[in-house]
Design a protein that fits this description.
The chain is of the alpha+beta class. It has 3 helices and 8 strands, in the order αβββββββααβ. The chain has one domain. Helix content is about 20%, strand content about 30%.
């Protein structure tokens, strides 16, 4: 008697999106990929190598038509949109972003990294910055005097 291994079906990007929809996510076409949304949190994904989804825009809170990226201001976390809208991050929103991220990775069959599963990871870090300090031709404090 011969035993055969079952053939593994190679999933397409559309199969991954169907899996996300069956897990309760809404999907729609967006610029740069496909927007995946659930409970006021959204992310943008596109087909990567081998049709495995890759996250183009990290999960963030939906603010109007935009996705607010989690930004660490040093003293507080904010959600900041590409157009400049800003709002303070609340604990329930951070939990929802974390749940969204973990559930989306599970629906797509992606690897969950230990450090990302510990808590919400910010997209941007802008603490300890004076506006305009690092731009221009002026001498920086760490440069040798001329």
């Amino acid at each position: 008697m011969f035993f055969r291994r079952p053939t593994v079906k190679k999933l397409t990007f559309e199969d991954h999106l169907a899996s996300a929809r069956s897990a309760g996510f809404k999907t729609e076409s967006a610029s740069g990929g496909t927007r995946v949304e659930r409970n006021g949190v959204a992310a943008v994904v596109k087909a990567g190598a081998g049709d495995v989804p890759s996250i183009v825009e990290k999960p963030g809170v939906v603010m109007g038509k935009e996705i607010g990226a989690l930004t660490d201001g040093g003293f507080q976390k904010f959600f900041l949109t590409p157009s400049g809208k800003k709002k303070p991050a609340l604990a329930p929103e951070l939990k929802e972003v974390q749940n969204f991220s973990e559930d989306l990775r599970e629906a797509f069959g992606l690897t969950s990294l230990y450090n990302e599963s510990l808590g919400t990871v910010s997209t941007k870090y802008i603490y300890d910055r004076v506006e305009g300090r690092d731009h221009g031709d002026h001498n920086k404090p760490w440069d040798a005097a001329h």
